[in-house]
Write a structure and sequence with these properties.
The complex is a heterodimer of chains A (about 120) and B (about 425). Chain A is of the alpha+beta class and about 120 residues long. Chain A has helices at about 10-15, 20-40, 85-95; strands at about 1-10, 45-50, 55-60, 65, 75-85, 100-110. The longest helix of chain A is centred in the first third of the chain and has 20 residues, at about 20-40. In chain B, helix 1 crosses helix 3, helix 9 runs antiparallel to helix 10 and helix 17 packs antiparallel against helix 18. The model of chain B is unreliable at about 95-100 and about 415-428 (pLDDT under 50). The chains are: A alpha+beta (about 120), B mainly alpha (about 425).
């Protein structure tokens, strides 16, 4: 098994302007996703939704600034850390991840075991 | 045995068996780079031993065994240097030395599928296929893509790194994944052919070779996946393009339009083969965009001259193609067929709509088609402007010369209000 992050990107305003019902529906979708990952033979190791990027503080070479590190229209809104067999499996799982106002990026977690036992 | 014969045998084996040798070695090394090195060494060994000991009866098996033996040696010696992330190799039959034919064939297919994995960029897919499946040296791959060797080497390294680190598996797609994965493979092989085809300026053997490699690969895929109509469709499409290649440029290396090509220069044997594979593909209910594109190419190929082209039938095929593959490029080509069925004015209406499509913003064939329709409508001044637009978007020398010619023609005509230079293309 390999660990992957599923990074959820999207237009933040879609979340900030969300009605209560829409918010509840999204939470349901995430619960359903968590369930589906198990059915697909994968595993969620961690996950979180992030507060809006306006709350972010960035540090670059010691200088502290207000706002996210990279200013983009579609910002990082949350992530999952999952375990999957291979990239095909991870992509299949990521395809189920709710990302209503954007999409997701699948990124393998660096293998730092360094002892050759990588798999 | 004369050394020249042995060298020739090695070259033949390189051309036809490289993918088999590499794929079988990957199964053992679980590392693409190491497998590549060992396969390379096996060919060097063949160059050294075949001239004195003779060419083995099964060169491919000899090379595979040699490459795998070298891999085993390396793996034993470098136990501690083992790469951190072994390739995820799908188990297949017995472990260890297994060179049964069906495993070998499947491994070659796994190699194709890993190179054309949809999570790799299309450019990376084509470059990897050329390097790993066709065994073309990096320097030549770079030449085919018109980039510096270092650039291509970096691109290949990046792609292989992604395969290793993101864990793209060396396995065959499951039945439900096959249509999508196969489409990715066929697209890459088609792109490989186009890379050779559009870059070709008549005298460039490297590009001709890329075209031939793409055809060879499509042929191998038909052998490996005999029940897939789209694979047959691709082979038909490429064979028909290959058959017409000799007539694509004139003696001065200038591009000749399909309508103006000397059809006696088409390769009849390739044409017949292409038509046969196309017909087989079209006979299947699962015929898709490659089969349909081949059928369109076949529709042109069977016409003894441009005037007798069955445009009505070609338009029906474009209609079907647009249904399974609604792309702006298909819409543009369909408009050309419309111009010969309903006239250039009707086609121009369709082409003008496409001017707003961002996907075609840098596509030279859009203004070139618009220009040609305007020329046929006797609007030479507007045609000249559109030809200039196309020229500004074209890098290929043969195509530039063709467009410059057309601009001169249109500007001459706009002065004299001349008639179309191609009455043959006018339709009733």
């Amino acid at each position: 098994m390999t660990q992957y992050t599923v990074l959820i990107y999207g237009d933040e305003s879609a979340y900030t302007d969300m009605s209560q019902e829409a918010w509840a529906a999204m939470m349901d979708a995430h619960n359903a996703f968590a369930h589906a990952v198990g059915e697909q033979g994968g595993k969620i190791l961690a996950g979180a939704g992030l507060a809006p990027s306006a709350t972010a503080t960035s540090l670059r070479a010691g200088a502290v600034t207000d706002g996210p590190f990279v200013e983009t229209k579609e910002s990082l809104g949350g992530f999952y850390l999952i375990e999957a067999d291979d990239l095909d499996h991870a992509v299949r799982i990521a395809a189920l991840c709710p990302a209503p106002s954007g999409g997701v990026e699948v990124r393998p977690v660096m293998d730092t075991s360094g002892d050759g036992a990588g798999s | 045995m004369p050394a020249a014969d042995a060298a020739d045998a090695v070259e033949q084996a390189h051309r036809h068996e490289w993918a088999v040798v590499l794929a079988a070695t990957v199964r053992l090394t679980r590392d693409l780079d190491l497998a590549e090195e060992c396969a390379q060494e096996a060919y060097v060994a063949a160059l050294q031993t075949w001239p004195t000991q003779g060419v083995p009866s099964r060169p491919g098996a000899w090379l595979t065994t040699t490459a795998r033996r070298k891999a085993l040696d390396r793996l034993r010696r470098e136990q501690t240097l083992r790469r951190k992330l072994p390739l995820l190799v799908e188990p297949d039959g017995e472990q260890g030395i297994d060179v049964r034919d069906e495993v070998v064939a499947d491994d070659r297919l796994r190699l194709v599928f890993i190179c054309c994995h949809p999570t790799l960029s299309p450019e990376a897919q084509v470059a990897l296929t050329l390097r790993l499946v066709c065994g073309v040296p990096t320097a030549e791959v770079a030449r085919a893509f018109l980039v510096a060797e270092a650039t291509m080497a970096a691109r290949l390294t990046r792609a292989k790194k992604k395969i290793a680190q993101a864990r793209i598996p060396f396995r065959l797609p499951a039945v439900d994944e096959l249509p999508q994965r196969l489409d990715s493979v066929l697209t890459a092989v088609h792109l490989l052919y186009s890379t050779g085809h559009t870059a070709a300026d008549g005298a460039d053997l490297a590009h001709e070779d890329v075209c031939r490699r793409a055809v060879d690969l499509a042929r191998v895929l038909v052998g490996l996946l005999p029940d897939e109509p789209e694979v047959r469709g691709l082979l038909g499409l490429l064979l028909l393009a290959e058959a017409r290649r000799p007539a694509r440029t004139d003696g001065d290396g200038r591009l000749v339009l399909l309508a103006d090509q000397d059809r006696t220069r088409w390769d009849r044997a390739l044409l017949a083969q292409g038509l046969r594979f196309t017909a087989e593909a079209m006979a299947s209910p699962r015929a898709g965009r490659f089969a349909l594109q081949a059928a369109i190419a076949g529709g042109h190929a069977v016409a003894p001259d441009a005037e007798s082209t069955d445009w009505w039938r070609i338009l029906r095929l474009y209609d079907a193609l647009q249904r399974v593959w609604p792309s702006p490029v298909v819409a543009l080509n369909r408009a050309v067929a419309v111009s010969f069925v309903d006239g250039p004015a009707a086609a121009l209406e369709l082409v003008v709509v496409l001017d707003d499509d961002p996907h075609l913003a840098a596509y030279p064939y859009l203004p070139a088609t618009r220009a040609d329709l305007l020329r046929r409508l006797d609007r030479p001044a507007e045609a000249a402007v559109a030809y200039r637009e196309a020229l500004a978007l074209t890098a290929n020398e043969a195509e530039r010369a063709f467009l410059a010619d057309r601009i001169a023609g249109a500007e001459g005509a706009s002065g004299t209000m001349g008639t179309s230079s191609h009455p043959a293309q006018e339709t009733s």
